[in-house]
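Record 1 of the preview.
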Amino acid sequence: MSGSYGAGSWFHSRSSSSEGERDKIVALVNVSHSPKYAHTRWSAGTSDPDVIAFAKEISVDPATMQTKIRQFIRLGFLKDDANLPLKWSTLAQYWRSLSESGRNLKRYADTFEQFIITCGLTLYAFDANSFVSNPVNGYRPIPALLQRVNAQGFISRSDLEALIGDRNNAYWRMDLIRGGILGENAYGFQLTNNFPALMQSIPNVSLPNNLTSTDWSEIRGDALDPRNPYRTAILSDVGSTMEEALNIESTLPHEQQEVIKSVVASTDSEEEAEINLGDYKVNDSYSKVKTRRKQSAWSKVVCRNYNYQCCMPQCDINGSELVSAAHIKKYSALEEAVGHRANPQNGLCLCPICHALFDRGYFTLTHDLKIEASPQISNLNSNIINNIVRDSNGKQIDPMPPVQYQPTTEFINYHRKKVFKA
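->
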């Protein structure tokens, strides 16, 4: 590195990550969805009337507004898009969902906010002139900081200032503390125990050389992008945060439970990959997050195989929000060698009513995948339900999933013997 940048000359846009600055970005994101700003380029010239009007929404001049937006793109809060509306990054969407769900989830929202900053700073890099999108081509402050702290993770005030430099010391200190990377004490600064998977991976993971600046901009907007070399570590730390949230899930109002479920389900890509590779087990020893993620992935795979349509022949309910995956062999059954809990062949896509009927044994499947109605269906005091089940009796499930995902004899036999009201 040349003497013009690097240690002692850390670049900063001089727009901080403080709560006040964050709140201005939240305000800009919200107002950017107004029809009057449709397709406005927030990065256009500072004399552009639309840019001036947009900047006035937070009572700043256009250049200041643009600097703030760029900094929050670099920190990983916003996707890198020159046109309005402003769009939250993947992690920021989770943060906003938790933030807007009440005080019970504030702790987890605050953790996600810290984590976004940490992830952003992990890929932050600059050269002699400014920030660089491709971190391979610049000086990266966070790896440099991790090399400078002592064996106990401590760095003195004077050493940190020497590392950062005088000009931007205050801005960087705020970002490092706001991101939960450093904690301040009477003697200096100490690495925290926050986000251990990511922090441990930073010195041990090499950045790929084959990614473009555009690739890295997309990765900042989606930290879970498969191209992100820190993706596995990020998923681990997100899982740890949500594991704590799942521990209190049952005590929360329904709306907040749904937010937690949504965040966990949105991070199940590795579990879906496991299922696609034939790993169908959900061991009782799995963490709550791992279990929930794998069940979410299984449900997505099953419903996708049925084109998100209820497979009861005479039921016409469809759509991802109106159907779910139903286990043929109950989830609670003892998990065996191959695994049934996340096996796509052990699932049907059903609407809530048909799902409940199937779970309670009011219909089952024959070995040629036809519906067999229980004689006890007549005990249900509902003409609509009776008609759907009776009219479907003897007909094959519809739609029929691909052959490799069709229910197996083993699972059908379980349901017929253990659940069906014969």
